[in-house]
Structure to design on (239 residues):
């Protein structure tokens, strides 16, 4: 419906499938993810960029479910020393309504996803569909680019170069028209699918796409940095 889904703090994800396989083209982008990233209008930088890591899967067993092997798509931060490919965060259910969600990562860091009652009406942000009192999300974590202007107090989440959803990178393929809900898109190339050792997976097609929040950060009253997704487009069909 072109209405955005907010994926939450680090590790939050959505998986989408299609009624056909998306082929790996010889050149150009194969698919795009529509989002709502933007630059700070006064500086033409910073702004709101909440990068989502992209993973793809082939339906090898043919059962129509995303239960085969995921391959991460290479991005501009892949392989850098500050990028953590093995990142895990465990979230804990709050003890009472209106409390923040506490977390601990596999590097010994702790923090919280703050409850913002002026923004939302639910009791807390711990997922209502999870019965256990804690759960763990895993994936690649980029070094966040969240900053606050010491004079204005305004927050910025600066973009990464390329390879991420909800990000004003060099891979934007939308038409730039702010009145068009399809204007803000990042293009992705299936040839960039890789194994965990960064070698090319050489996929001929994909059947499922996962978009996962790729930073662990928050921006004051704006809350956690959370990838937003408005849609996924097969660029071999829609141009």
């Amino acid at each position: 419906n072109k209405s955005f889904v907010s994926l939450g703090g680090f590790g939050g994800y959505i998986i989408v499938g299609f009624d056909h396989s998306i082929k790996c083209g010889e050149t150009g982008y194969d698919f795009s993810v529509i989002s709502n990233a933007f630059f700070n209008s006064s500086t033409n930088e910073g702004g709101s960029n909440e990068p989502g890591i992209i993973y793809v899967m082939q339906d090898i067993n043919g059962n129509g479910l995303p239960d085969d092997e995921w391959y991460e798509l290479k991005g501009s931060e892949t392989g850098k020393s500050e990028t953590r490919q093995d990142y895990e965060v465990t979230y804990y259910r709050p003890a009472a309504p209106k409390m923040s969600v506490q977390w601990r990562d596999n590097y010994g860091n702790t923090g919280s996803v703050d409850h913002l009652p002026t923004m939302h009406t639910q009791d807390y942000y711990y997922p209502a569909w999870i019965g256990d009192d804690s759960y763990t999300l895993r994936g690649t974590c980029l070094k966040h680019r969240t900053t606050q202007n010491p004079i204005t107090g305004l927050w910025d989440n600066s973009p990464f170069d390329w390879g991420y959803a909800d990000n004003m990178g060099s891979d934007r393929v939308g038409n730039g028209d702010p009145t068009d809900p399809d204007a803000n898109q990042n293009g992705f190339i299936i040839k960039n699918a890789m194994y965990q050792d960064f070698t090319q997976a050489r996929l001929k097609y994909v059947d499922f796409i996962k978009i996962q929040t790729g930073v662990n950060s928050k921006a004051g009253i704006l809350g956690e940095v959370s990838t937003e997704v408005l849609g996924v487009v097969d660029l071999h069909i829609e141009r």
Summary: The chain has no helices and 18 strands.
